[in-house]
Amino acid sequence: MTIVKAAKTHPLYDKLVEIVSEERINDNPIIISSYSHDACHLEAERPSIVIMPETVEEIQKIVKICNDTRTAVIPAGGRNGICGACLPRVKGAVMLDMVKMDKIVTLDEDAMTVTVEAGLRWAELIHRLDEKGYKLGFRGPYGGNVGTVGGSVSINSIGYAASKFGPSTEGVVSLEVVLPDGSVITTGSGWNRDAQLFARFTSFNDITGVFLGDHGTLGVKTKVTLKIYPKAEFITYGDFGFRTLEDAVRAFHEVQKRGLTEELNLLTDRQSTDTFFPGFLDNHPEINAMFASIVQETDQQLADRKMEIIRETALEHGGKDLGNFASQMHWSELFNLVQPLYNNGFWLNTCHLRPILRVPELMKKMWEIFEKYKLLNNGIKWIASCLGAERTYATGWVTIFAPTKDKMDLALTAWNEMLDAVIATGGCPYWNGLLWEDHTLRQVDPAFLNVVHTLKRAIDPNGIMCPHVFEGVK
Amino acid sequence: MNDTRFSNVMEYEKDLWLCARCGDCSLADKIVASNREIFHPCAVKNVLGFEAYTARGRIMVINDLLAGKLELDDDLVNWAFTCTTCKNCQETCTATADGIRMAEITEALRRDLVDKGLDMPKHRIIEEYIEKEGNPYKEPREKRLELFGERQWPERAEVVYFVGCTSAYREREIAIDTVALLDKAGVDFTILPDEECCGSVMHRLGREGPFNKSAQKNIKAIEKTKAKYLITACAGCYRTWKIDIPENGHKFKFEVLHITEFLDKLISEKRIAFEAPNGIRVTYHDPCHLGRHSEVYEAPRRVIQSVKNVELVEMMTNKRYAHCCGAGGGVKSSHGELADKIAARRINEAEDTQAELLITACPFCLRGLHDGADYIKSSLRIIDIPQFLLPYVIKGVIEVSEEENPLKQEFMDYLRAHPKIFDGLKPDAVIDYIIEDDRFHVRIVKKGQIEVNPIRAENPDVELTFSEGAVRELIQIPSEDEYAARFGQFFKEPTDEKWIKFNLRRNIVKLLMKGYRKFAQKAGLI
Ligand SMILES: Cc1cc2nc3c(=O)[nH]c(=O)nc-3n(C[C@H](O)[C@H](O)[C@H](O)COP(=O)(O)OP(=O)(O)OC[C@H]3O[C@@H](n4cnc5c(N)ncnc54)[C@H](O)[C@@H]3O)c2cc1C
Ligand code: SF4
Ligand code: SF4
Questions:
Q1: Which residues contact A236 (CB under 8 A, 6 or more apart)?
Q2: pLDDT in tens, B409-467
Q3: Residue whose C-alpha is closest to residue A242's, from A282, A290, A280
Q4: CATH code for residues A102-230
Q5: Ligand 1 pocket, A349 CB below 6 A?
Q6: Is the CB of B85 under 6 A from ligand 3?
Q7: Which residue, A26, A291, A362, B34, could crosslink A266 as a Cys pair with Cβ 3.0–4.6 Å?
Q8: Cα A175 to the center of its chain, rounded Å
Q9: What is the CATH code for A234-431?
Q10: Quick check: pTM over 0.95?
């Protein structure tokens, strides 16, 4: 049923409504308003019509009509991205709200893969796998209550359990994609119609990789096949504090290098720890940086021994054992850790990747910016945290919070300098979106970009999928 | 530029700023990941699909309204009356200590719309009837007590039973059975000869109507009876009496209790007891106004579980995160079919438990759920709590079959003797203790004073589960400081015999506000 009726002014309304029925298509400005942002402050064009598809066939038909009429198509997942990636850059766009496509299609217990519809959210996937005795590798971005598998792998999201398994995209075995002409392909071992979806790299180029991180520019992902693992019930935790960030980073690097942890989270200064876990360091005045480590194994002895090694490594680097409250809370509040920080104000993020040993260089620049704009005096708090990722790189999540609307201008000024500092110190954002695109385009090798654009022209000659993405915002 | 003055909404400016659109209120599944029973909290979005119906979407729409980017038209009014004000989004939201207050923002918006002359004609008619006849059902005032026949009500009594419009005119069985139950328990009670609508309907629709006048009239009439308690079997009336009437500046001395709280009291005083002849499996739907709005979750469950041979099974979403039945917040009167569809989904949830009976504690929910069941032709039996209980009342002295767990008793005694353990926690902080599947809770009354209650808390901040070995050791420790240190050790270095587990039931911001930082520091946790 519908309460807010469609305005029916979109030129394709009559054709599209035949595909999905009135309940799942709407171009009323009230409905559109609720798709005007993702979870960041940035704005672009609004979609002109929103459709909630339920099947691959529906998407094929929609995309075909859009291709025939050169109409922009924007796939959107949970719209909890934080770079504005799911917002159209052109007027008249058709947005596909994918969240109704949330089924588990196959759980292949022999090949140890799970195939899900692209609109399924990480938290629900974990819930369903847990019931069957399995876990995922990469476990979802911190916004994984709402972030979808399809959205995440389209923008290289990274987060929980990246320490052991790397970013979301590392866990992908195969994709089903509706191409801009309406045809469908299955990548990985799926090229063989009789094969199970068990491997990503077989017989041809890695076509899966072409679509991963494409920001929806090459097609609509309709299914994603991910690696799964036996549920691991034995968990050990450890929090370690250090006098200097440099000491903390060296220890963190060592632990991450040895691949001991499921999750490894560095908080780079006292302010960040206090923003995340208020009061945590009150009894440790000498500590300036800390990390929380989580080991998860199928065997208790293994979990215990790994934590012992982490502890030894931390102590060798001058670390102090702080117990394990922070890491226990960190892990038990899965997908609920970041939202309480909103209480500090609206967030401005700088998410990116960097080699672990280049974290101090970044923080030096960040502290200068915080000082220059007297952020704390203006009630603008920050958090700077790094998640260990597969071998020796880390996320750099330096975020500031504008407590009220009137502090937003100041916060934005500081934030823009922070973005420059990230790139200047060798950072590579996980995603582009409205947030990063101009910064990355300034830095990118033209030959590299040319390949990206050539791929786009080859797969989407009419340029209907997320037009103008990777071409610059301004 | 459209009219952008929304003075009532502007009181929530901070909420509108702090919502960073994470979308939890729309799509969260926190069943495994963070051990809360949340699943797609917004019952309205679950039916209508689009984001505009969730708190996240509503905030975007409202921010557009404030910026003059949307028309104030019929579509907008229709949309504004789709929120059941169930508060599930707020419970789910961890962005602020209380969560973003969408239900209140919705009511504020409705007040602004009504002020601008933008409302639904049917709401105007409801208001007229309440003004004229004291009820929203277009029924004559004189017929309000017709359901009780010729019975005469005493002028004075210990208890006043506030019937409410829905039980008086529509779900009459509830009123009749409530009266019968009170009679069986020998309660000294009466009913007001000219009860007025409590005002809930008007409030939820953003209208003032005769709210204050009726409240004053009702209070005067109740005080005349010298009653100590005002009881109601309607969750909507209960919320209005418990929250809205006092918030509007009305003062009264009597205590307001929901029928389930009152029965819980009678059961614990051994004044009434129940037994079903054969085993029966039931489930319970939390009315939003009783649960999330007033934090009464356990009393109805204790009452149901007090019935011998009854097994209570929970639905996938329950208590704080229970899906709404769809009838509240003016949705039933504004968009009847939407309410039915939401209720139908709740019926499906109840059916999934394989219960024979779905029990609720509100005439409005009862009606909504019945309509939902009809909508999908479900044969699930749905019943309100007084109706459920009445046939099972048993006579004579009630034997308490459950033996108190001695360890629980010792632990409670120990904590009573060591209130300093809780130093630093603010008044009204509540901790639930779980040992061997048995529960009790500690409530901080004021500095140095605690209350230890042998039952599960209605809405605890934190749940602490202890192994038997940990409790046995803890209760031997003479000093509070040493207790705290050992407590911390059992958490940080658990062994198979001695361990403690935490479950945070509120978000971190709220816990900090309640003083849990000090508590954790003292226990050496941080
Ligand atoms: C509280 C919170 C915490 C967060 N923490 C993290 C974190 O730790 N790590 C992290 O990486 N991110 C984080 N984020 C951001 C967000 O969780 C991730 O970016 C997430 O992966 C977004 O998924 P989505 O489904 O919401 O994608 P959307 O925002 O809807 O879309 C993202 C992009 O994917 C494209 N897309 C979506 N679905 C499809 C599809 N089916 N086919 C093709 N293209 C598609 C869109 O066009 C867009 O370009 C956080 C966000 C919040 C609110
Ligand atoms: S209301 Fe709360 S839960 Fe909903 S989007 Fe806003 S911050 Fe998130
Ligand atoms: S109060 Fe209930 S119906 Fe209204 S937006 Fe929140 S969850 Fe949805």
A1: A294, A295, A303, A304, A306, A307
A2: 999 999 999 999 999 999 999 999 999 889 999 999 999 999 999 999 998 999 999 99
A3: A290
A4: 3.30.465.10
A5: no
A6: yes
A7: A291
A8: 17
A9: 3.40.462.40
A10: yes
